[in-house]
Design brief:
Blueprint (H helix, E strand, L loop, with lengths): L8 H24 L13 H19 L19 E5 L8 H10 L6 E7 L17 E5 L17 H9 L5 E5 L5 E2 L5 E2 L4 H17 L6 E6 L1 H16 L9 E5 L35 H9 L30 E7 L5 H15 L3 E6 L15 H14 L1
Helix pairs in contact: 1-2, 4-9, 5-6
Length: 395
């Protein structure tokens, strides 16, 4: 695998894969999708089947080569036309208790980070802008298994935030922090393991409240997949530590949350090991998609036990007693019915609902894949879900 991450082997492999996809795989996927009985979901069109197969293959290629395209990261602010970037200062003075202990274990460094503002079309960006007492802001935490994708507005996952702003006239601004991604070099050496991303998310939240001046009750934290996991952890941290001048957010949006890194739901008969795989993530005994790599990158191979014991990591794990969700803000959870992580999401839903009651709204999209809301071709489900978010924000 390491050879494929270096040139010229990377280029040769990518070209060979793309050629095979266009001339062999796409025709094959088209033919096998003609009978409805052979489709991952009978409700899917032939074109959707082909696109899902292609996306699944792309994720496999992307992982093997360490990224087909180079993504922005925490080391630099990537400028460009229409890109509104700022630097966010670290906030080591805000880290206490359990998370501080975890920081010391892995020697987390506190550094300045890039962040990006997404502005509604027609609005003017002003870095010195001061919000009114009623101005709302969406604080987005991107997904990617804690090791991939970016906060940059050109990132594939940025379509979620762009879509929300486009549909919701009550929101003019989205803020996204370029939190540090985790890496594992297969020699048991990890870079930026837990709780580094959480420390960065706390710094971003502090920037919104104490630098920009947003009222915490007007901040809506939104995260997809691993970003939703991070959103839950950030909210839990703010509730448990009761920091001065840093109250918890007013709302939380969880899109296809990855909430069980212990893989306790990976067992025969569960959604994690389906007979027919309909998700873009491939099933295995190591969990959906790249779970084996993701978990070891994020937690460190020597610290995997926290996946089964720490609610900051796996609030839906069946290996631990239910963590408390008391005093969590109103929350909207959006999930796809065809997701490999569907069972763990239902566990998370049930655990949150027990403490939150009507403050939790659960929205399930039948036959939808993981993170479908970031795919602009996944219609009409994508637009319907974005409008559900807008309706929920306004309510």
């Amino acid at each position: 695998m390491s050879l494929l991450r270096h040139q010229p082997f990377k280029a040769i492999y990518v070209v060979a894969e793309l050629t095979t996809i266009v001339f062999l795989r796409v025709p094959f996927w088209f033919v096998i999708s003609i009978p409805k009985s052979r489709r991952p979901r009978p409700s899917w069109s032939i074109s959707r089947c082909v696109l899902v197969y292609a996306l699944r293959r792309y994720f496999r290629i992307n992982f093997r080569v360490g990224g087909v395209l180079k993504s922005p990261n925490h080391l630099a602010l990537q400028k460009g036309k229409g890109v509104n970037g700022v630097w966010v200062n670290p906030a080591p003075e805000l880290i206490h208790g359990h998370i501080l202990e975890q920081c010391k274990k892995v020697a987390v460094e506190f550094v300045k980070l890039p962040a990006y503002w997404y502005i509604r079309k027609g609005e003017t960006f002003d870095a010195e802008y001061k919000p009114s007492k009623t101005d709302k802001v969406l604080y987005t935490l991107h997904g990617g298994g804690f090791f991939a994708f970016s906060a940059h507005p050109a990132d594939p996952l940025a379509t979620i935030a762009h879509g929300i702003v486009k549909e919701c006239e009550d929101l003019n601004r989205v803020f996204c922090i370029e939190y540090r991604l985790s890496k594992w070099d297969m020699k048991n050496h990890t870079t930026h393991p837990f709780p580094t991303a959480l420390v960065d998310a706390i710094a971003g939240y502090n920037y919104l409240v104490n630098d920009m001046g947003y009222a915490p009750e007007n901040i809506i934290i939104e995260g997809d997949s691993a970003g939703a996991n991070l959103g839950l952890a950030l909210t839990r941290y703010l509730l448990e530590n009761k920091l001065p001048n840093l109250a918890p957010p007013g709302s939380l949006i969880l899109v296809c949350p990855w909430a069980d890194l212990s893989l306790s739901h990976v067992k025969p008969g569960s959604s994690a090991l389906p007979v027919v795989n309909a998700d873009v993530l491939t099933p295995s005994k190591y969990g959906p998609g790249t779970s084996y790599y993701s978990i070891r990158s994020y937690l460190n191979p020597d610290n995997l036990s926290v996946a089964s014991s720490d609610p900051y990591v796996s609030p839906a794990s069946l290996d631990m007693s239910k963590p408390s969700f008391k005093n969590f803000p109103r929350t909207l959870m959006i999930v796809g019915g065809a997701e490999l992580q569907f069972d763990s999401m239902k566990t998370l839903r049930d655990r949150m609902a027990e403490d939150m009651g009507d403050l939790l709204e659960y929205y399930e999209v039948p036959d939808a894949i993981h993170d479908f809301i970031c795919l602009e071709w996944y219609e009409p489900e994508r637009t319907a879900s974005l409008r559900k978010i807008v309706e929920w924000i306004r309510s």
